[in-house]
Amino acid sequence: MASGLGGSLVAVLANVPDKFKCLARAWETTILCLARQALFGSPPCLGGELYEDLLAKASLHLLGKGLPPQVWHHGFKMMRVIWSGGTSLLDDLLSPVTYLSKSGPDDAELAAFILKWISDFRGGLCEADLPELDEFLTNVMLLLSSLIEKHSESIIAERPDELMVSTEKDVLTVTSCLLAANAYAEWVPVVHLVKHGLVKRCESLLHLSRFQTYALKFFKILCQRRRPLTVAKDYDDAMSHVFEILMSISQDSLTKVAACSDFSSERELNVAEGICDCLFTLVSSNMQCIIADTIKTSCFLRQMLEYYQHYKIALHFQSLPFWLVYSVSHTALLNYSFHLAIFLYGTSMHVL
């Protein structure tokens, strides 16, 4: 019966206009899979290919270039099956997605969305499953990093007031990559995010106004991560690297807030607030990354004090929770805060 159904579908497919062939192929594959499932109770194979493999291929047909969003939606829904196929299916799916990303900004944007949806459909994935996904996640991180680098370069090359249509497409592609990066930042090992360049690429986007919101969200998600029970040393090193990035950007941001004109000051102020929030979040979740290093701790306290004493009331209030909670509840920080206050008081008296 399945073969008869397949023959009928092939006959129909021959009469379908070219622009709808991808749709017809997707429906052909899907109907064959569903028919086989109804007859034989979802067997492992269909015509020599895994059931999940065929549905994954069908979903890619529905994600073809030029199709309306409603069709893409069905393609994304069908991609829920990919996690049931194990790591081999994920690796097989990544190859056509990578190929798709090389065609141009439009297809690269779609590829980034596919990567995001793969993350969104991970379901009940737990930490014990991550070692099996090591190669897949490495390739995803490298792909997202390369896409951000490639499509942000053309944006940086153009003057902000002379963006071309092609550059606008690159903006959409980078934004899609950031959305995907934020999705993976929630669960991919922090070591992977740092090692394979995604943290570095998102750091570079903090200096571009169009991407600052999503780039800051990436770092906020990272700062909320909790220390794993295993590979704790590698995690601490990676989070220390994130801390150093935020500290560097923090000082630059405060300098820009003081130097900006009224028009751009609001934007820079929002960035400074976001960075202060990230620093507070990082210390809340990963105190061990700085508390053992007296130099880092001192620099951090000075930076938070600068936020607290800032003439912009928004920055003052953004840092207030830290001084109300953590400088009191953590003895080590309280000790450093006390000595820092004495030092600053002595400096101010000397000036007077």
Automatic annotation (TrEMBL):
GO terms for cellular component: cytoplasm; nucleus; RNA nuclear export complex. One of its GO terms (biological process) is protein export from nucleus. It holds the Pfam family Exportin-5. Residues 266-325 form the Exportin-5 C-terminal domain. It comes from the Eukaryota. InterPro entries: ARM-like, Exportin-5_C, XPO1/5. GO terms for molecular function: nuclear export signal receptor activity; RNA binding. This is Exportin-5 C-terminal domain-containing protein.
